[in-house]
Prior knowledge:
Layout: H1 18-23, H2 25-36, E1 40-45, E2 48-53, H3 56-65, E3 70-71, H4 77-82, H5 91-106, H6 108-111, H7 114-125, E4 135-136, H8 137-154, H9 162-181, H10 193-215, H11 219-226, H12 234-243, H13 246-261, H14 268-276, H15 278-291, E5 297-302, E6 306-308, E7 311-313, E8 318-322, H16 323-326, H17 368-385, E9 386-390, E10 399-400, E11 406-407, E12 412-417, H18 423-426, H19 438-441
Parallel strand pairs: 2-8
Antiparallel strand pairs: 1-2, 3-5, 4-12, 5-8, 6-7, 9-12, 10-11
Amino acid sequence: MMSKLPGSTGISLLGDKSLEFYRDPITFCERRIEKHGSRIFQARLLNKSTSFVCSVQGMKELLCDKSSVFLKDPTDVMTYMYGDNIVTTNGEEASLLRLSLMNLFTGKCLASSSDYIKSVCERSLKDLSSSAEPQSVYPIFKRLGSELVLGLFLNVKAEETPEVFEEITQLCTLHWHGIISAPVNIKVPLWSSGFSTALEARDKLMEIIKEKLELEQEGFVGCLRALPLPDASCASQHLLLFISALIPKALASLLTSFTLALCGPGQEEVRERARQDPRYLDQVLLEVQRLWPPFIGGRRIASQDTTLGGYHIPKGSATMYVSYTVHRDPEVFHQPDEFRPERWSGRNAGQENLLCSLGNGPRNCIGMQLNHVFLKAVCGYMLQHYGWALSPSDQSLQYKWLPVSRPAELPMVIFTPLHDQASPQSHGNTQDIHTHTCPHAEARKGTSD
């Protein structure tokens, strides 16, 4: 017999919990998990009855077993901002797009990208220690991500055409801020001034993209143009998605969390092991994604009456999986709040598919493999060239989780060349983070990006 979902969705408008959720999604979920004794519960979000999934088993059922039942919301703000694409469409159309585009991310058109990725890492990171001053790492990583994305997907390289690169980067930022300016207060119209500015930026980006598609013969753009896509606008809509600020911000989020996780002289042994052993670096990166996923999760709409975790889910209601809480499910991850890379060669060996930081199942992120290549290249460069520590030591590492996770106050880190490794401890104002759980396990704060 199906059980009734714990929690309440209240009445329309008055019972809506959107503001509470968007201010602090982690506390929102953890309070209700404790209150209801269940990692699946219900509340009203965006004025819609919504079930929240905070368990690994529930996430796998939602995104894998019943992916054809729980569909993307066609009224989602992402559809307004990016149009129809592999992220926003459903059913057979989404499957066919995925089959076509998958070749771009695994085939030869990105196979030659390794030299470019190395050159961007070198140019972006070679001077981290030159000033002997602390660096704000998040903006450095965000720009690095923009260089990777625009160079690979649009063939716009910062070192060759700096003015064009800066123009597109600024337009991508304006476009992005339109997404996050879409009000969560349901009484405010969607078409806010920030949203209108974002649509103007989108139109300018589309002009640049269409020109590139007409002129470029080589690389990713040339390969994309040659694909058998359903209509003329499909290639440009996807390029808009691939070059958006979303990817650099996700990379910057993960790279910042990696830097903090391996920060300080107390983590020197972990850095050394990751430097020597590529498989251990993979485990470190899995653990970073587990503890600090860049995105809060994803939302689906039930296309029919169904169940999740034995609970009844009515047709038309929404379901949201929350990556942070799924990744800290104690049923699957022992000591879930602790940074333990070795878990991925122990009790969680071979269970990478239980993470959902970039989605899961047949609708997971199409660029997941490329994202790992980016992460491994950047982290590998840092490990080979530097040691690092927080400076000053008393910085707040409280995280904000929306729209992309990162410390609410951008951390300052001092880098020391490896050949000069006596120095991290010589800075009296640096901090040793041993397990990296103390500041981050409690880090919950919601501010806008």
